[in-house]
Design a protein that fits this description.
Pfam families: DUF2521 (PF10730). There is one protein chain. By secondary structure, the chain is an all-alpha fold. It has a domain of 99 residues. Helix content is 79%, strand content 0%. The protein is elongated and about 60 Å long.
Length: 145
């Protein structure tokens, strides 16, 4: 008789392998530059916690990159970026809300500034989602997946 396979374990192994390959193209220096560019004004009041905030921004950029990369197959088969992004909207929204809540913990001000933080978080995560998506499409085209 054959061995019984655990499909959840096999799926998780494939997912980890895919993520490992996708992350080879990601540069920590690029992420740190993006953190400084996007959140420079928001970090000044909480500069004492710069390292913690930077680490969390790095983690969220990686998660967003991997989320975009996981949808790269759709782009490879010709689906437009906007449609693929709408497919991932629920997972992206969850990631965005978590990231925004993280920023609200550190940076509490009036509603106007909260809205600008939300827009900065959305732009930051979308940038890394799109980087991951484009990276995965390139990998599929070069047959490196």
């Amino acid at each position: 008789m054959a061995t019984v396979m655990n499909f959840h374990e096999k799926y998780r192994h494939k997912q980890l392998d895919f993520e490992r390959k996708a992350l080879q193209e990601l540069s920590i220096q690029k992420i740190e530059t993006a953190i400084n560019n996007v959140f420079e004004d928001f970090i000044k009041p909480v500069a004492a916690y710069w390292q913690t905030i930077s680490d969390m921004c790095l983690d969220y950029a990686i998660e967003s990159f991997l989320l975009g990369a996981s949808y790269g197959r759709f782009g490879y088969y010709g689906e437009p970026v906007e449609r693929v992004y709408s497919r991932s909207q629920s997972r992206f929204k969850t990631l965005l809300d978590d990231f925004y809540d993280f920023w609200l913990f550190w940076y509490y001000v009036d509603n106007m500034a909260n809205e600008s933080i939300y827009l900065a978080c959305e732009a930051y995560l979308y940038h890394w989602w799109k980087e991951g998506f484009e990276s995965a499409v390139r990998r599929y085209r070069m047959r490196l997946h």
